[in-house]
Every structure is written in C-alpha cells, then in structure tokens.
Design goal:
Length: about 475
C-alpha cells in the first residue's frame, strides 16, 4: 500500500533532458527529491520522495504553484475532480457507474470492484434524490507533538503499516468527527470505519459498498454516512437519507431482497442483523480482538505512562490490572507489550525510573529551559538556523544539540512557539526589494559554484531572516523571472 512520502507525476509533451533538469531543480526548491525518472515522448514520468507526511503535503502544495504542474496528467485529473465536486454541490449531476467507481475504488489497486445490482440501486436512489449527497473539503492534520488523547488516536490509526494513505485517511476521519463535536469517535475493522455515537454518523475510508450503505448503515446504524475516498485526498462525501428513502425502504422488505439469488452469504449475514436501532454509545462501539477498544487502549496507555512518570516499575503498574476497563494484569501486560510498547518506547525511556533521570546528562530544569527558549528566539531574530543556535547554547547548558532541538520541538510552551512564528511573520512583512536584490546577488554572483539551497543558510544569517523566508523569497524570485521571460 502506498506510503505518504512519495508522489508521482506524468508530464505531457516532449521534454528534453535539459528541460527535465529545470523541472528537477524546481522540485528540489519545493522540498522534494527525484528518486526515479524515465524521459519518453509524451510520457515523462518521475517519482518524488519527501521526508514524511507533513513534508509530502508541503511539497505538493508548493509544486502546484509552479508552471510545470500544469504540464502533468495529475493537473488535468485535479481539474476533473474540481468539476465533479462543484457538480455534486450544485445538484448538476446525473449519477452513473463511473461516478461511483471514482468514489468507491482504489485507482492504484490491481483488483477493481465489480459493479452489481446494488451499485445501480444506489445510483437510482441518488438520481431520485432519495439519498442526498454533498462534497466537503477537510484540512491536513499533522502528527501531535505531545502525548495525549490525540497522540493515542494517531498511533492507533498509524498501525504497523506506517504512514500509508489509508491510515492517514483514518486519522483525518477521527479529527473530522472531533471537529464536528464527537468526543469519542470509535474505531472498527482495522481503523477503516469510525463512528460517532452521539451524532449518529458513520465514516468509511477507502473502498465503498453500496449494499451496506443502503441496507445496513443508512437503514439501521446512522443518519449520515461519510465516505472518504483514496483520491482526491482532503475531500469527503456526505450521504444523507431523506424521508422518501425511509418510505421506499418500508415498501421493500429485506426478505424480498434476500430472495434474490445474486446475494452472497456475507450479504445475507449483514441483512439479517436485527433491525433495532443502537440505544447507547456502547452499541456503536465495535470491539477489536481480545475485547480491546480504542477507549480501553487509551486508558491503558495513560495508566502505564503515568505510572512510569511517578517512578513505578512495570510490576507495580500491572500488579492489579485496571479495574476501570475490566482488564486483569495478564490482559493489560499482554496488550501493552504486543501492541503499544514499541510505539511508546521513547516516552518509556524518558520516564522509566527516577534513577535513570538523575543519571541523564540531558536532564532539564527551569533555568536550562529559559536559556534555550531565549537563545532560540534571539537567534531567530538574527536569522540564524536552529541547528546553529542549539549547537552554541548546548555548550552553555550542558545538553546535547539534538536534545535541545527535540526539547524545543516537543516541549516548548505555546507562548514561545507563538512568539517564534510572529518573528518569522514580521521578517517576511519587512522584506524589501533591496533584500531581494541582495539574495539574488549572493546566489548568482557571490556563490555561483554553490547550489541555491547551500547559499540559503548564509543569506539567512546575513539578511537576518529565518531560512524558511529565504527559501520562499527565492522561489518567488524564480517565478517572477519566468513570467518576465
């Protein structure tokens, strides 16, 4: 399954090797790195790698602003997706099999779903307005830096398969439900479905099943079904049953449907579920193996990390189990070591015992924290990089540079992060034409033998602005030059 640190682009037209090198330079400026390419007439193809999911979305956003993006097949697909999005919300669409396949299948899968009678039934219900649908965009959700409920949910989504597209979509679904007011979104079936007990919303990521949408979800489980497809990422589709749908459903008893010989045994088992509506939040929870749910896992993780923070041993932590979730010591111990110990190994190392903390040369105290925050803010005002700042302050406070950077990224209070961001905003606001001229002069005249990205740290310190702004302004300068020819 594709991971969210690589992206592919197919370029139309005839590109020479020299022309592709220009594209490659633009890709580097946008934050990506070409790891594979093939240059052919009307089919130049390249694979670009980024550091992680956040870097992936930063790169995609930056590259879309370049003139080269419009040369790609992906640009045309995006235009088509935008037209589809508008047609749905404007009510100007006559649903077809191709429309549903675009929503419910993985375009990269070698095995595609086959449309059956229930696909055409859903198409008919949509076209008759018995089921209404609208499209909505959702934002990118980054990995939480600090431990808490969001971090537990993130780790729950990003299971052993890592940062795959499907896991990212599950993480976005959880956040989307939280933003809608659901305090406890519930996971089920390898995190592919997430439900909202209080809002009666059922979310599915990836593939879609028209039969389940009609006769299981909208008929019995929820008022609203949300489908989050593989592509386009950051777009979801909201299915809502109307009064006419429920009147139609009453006229078409499940027994009549089951008499049809094309229904599989699996579909019969779904349709034979009791028609009683869920009466409590517990009914909406679908438990995973060994009776563990997301809520129980959250209690377990918090219980273990709090215990380690308070100097307890694992024996003490697991000695009595956790009565709150009805799990004994063996169940808790097995779940922790089989599912969560590796994911939280950094937290357990930092919090394992009071003795280890005392022996740790990187131990922090209020004085060291204050010196670090002051140095980073002052250095950023001078245009110095975080690497250079932490290398200098580390000698003064007796903490390694990497530990300084990690502590700033993961533990700096909100007010310091806000001041840091405000410094960058002020620097960009005060950027002048003279600064742009000096940046161009440094890259083209003073350091012609260096790559632009190698000059960025030098320019950052000389112009006293953050390196992110230098990178952005250089990109803007290149864009202006291309427009001017």
């Amino acid at each position: 399954m594709r991971h969210l640190n690589k992206v592919s682009y197919h370029f139309h037209g005839i590109l020479s090797y020299h022309e592709f090198e220009k594209i490659k330079e633009e890709i580097n400026l946008c934050g990506g790195m070409v790891i594979y390419k093939t240059i052919k007439e009307n089919n130049t193809y390249c694979v670009i790698k980024t550091d992680d999911t956040d870097a992936y979305f930063d790169f995609v956003r930056n590259f879309k602003q370049t003139e080269y993006y419009e040369l790609t097949k992906e640009y045309k697909e995006e235009q088509s997706d935008n037209e589809f999005f508008s047609a749905i919300n404007n009510g100007n669409i006559q649903w077809t099999e191709d429309h549903l396949k675009a929503l419910f299948t993985n375009p990269e899968s070698l095995v595609q779903q086959k449309a059956d009678e229930y696909w055409f039934l859903l198409i008919d219900l949509l076209n008759k307005d018995f089921i209404r649908i609208r499209a909505e965009e959702y934002p990118h959700f980054s990995k939480p830096e600090e431990f808490g409920e969001e971090r537990i949910a993130y780790d729950y989504c990003y299971n052993e398969r890592g940062e795959t597209v499907k896991n990212y979509l599950s993480w976005c679904a959880w956040n989307w439900l939280r933003n809608k007011g659901e305090k406890n979104p519930s996971f089920k079936k390898l995190n592919e479905t997430i439900s909202s007990p209080s809002l009666k919303i059922y979310v599915k990521v990836g593939d879609g099943n028209p039969y389940k949408i009609i006769f299981d979800i909208l008929a019995k489980r929820a008022k609203t079904y949300i489908h989050i497809p593989y592509r386009p990422i950051h777009t979801l589709y909201i299915f809502e049953a109307t009064v006419n749908f429920h009147l139609w459903l009453a006229e078409h008893k499940h027994n009549e449907i089951l008499d049809n010989s094309t229904i599989t045994n699996d579909e019969k088992s779904v349709a034979n579920v009791s028609t009683n509506q869920p009466t409590s939040q517990e009914n909406m929870h679908t438990e995973i193996k060994d009776d563990w749910t997301f809520e129980k896992d959250s209690v377990l993780i918090t219980h273990v990390l709090d215990g380690l923070k308070n100097g307890k041993t694992y024996s003490d932590i697991f000695s009595s189990g956790i009565k709150e979730i009805g799990m004994n010591k063996d169940q808790c111990k097995h779940r922790w070591y089989s599912k969560w110990s590796q994911k939280y190994k950094h937290e357990t190392v930092n919090e394992n015992t009071a003795t280890q903390v005392k022996q740790n040369p990187n131990k922090w105290n209020p004085e060291k924290e204050s010196l670090l925050y002051t140095a980073i803010l002052a250095g950023t005002k001078e245009g110095r990089t975080l690497k250079a700042i932490t290398a200098q302050i580390s000698k003064k406070i007796g903490v390694t540079p990497s530990a300084c950077q990690s502590y700033w990224n993961n533990h700096a209070p909100k007010q310091y992060k806000e001041e840091f961001n405000q410094i960058k905003l002020d620097q960009e606001k005060n950027w002048s034409n003279e600064d742009m001229r000096l940046l161009n002069h440094m890259i083209k005249v003073e350091y012609p033998d260096l790559e632009p990205y190698e000059v960025f740290p030098i320019a950052s310190e000389r112009l006293k602005v953050h390196i992110d702004i230098i990178r952005k302004k250089w990109y803007e300068l290149l864009k202006i030059k291309r427009i001017q020819g």
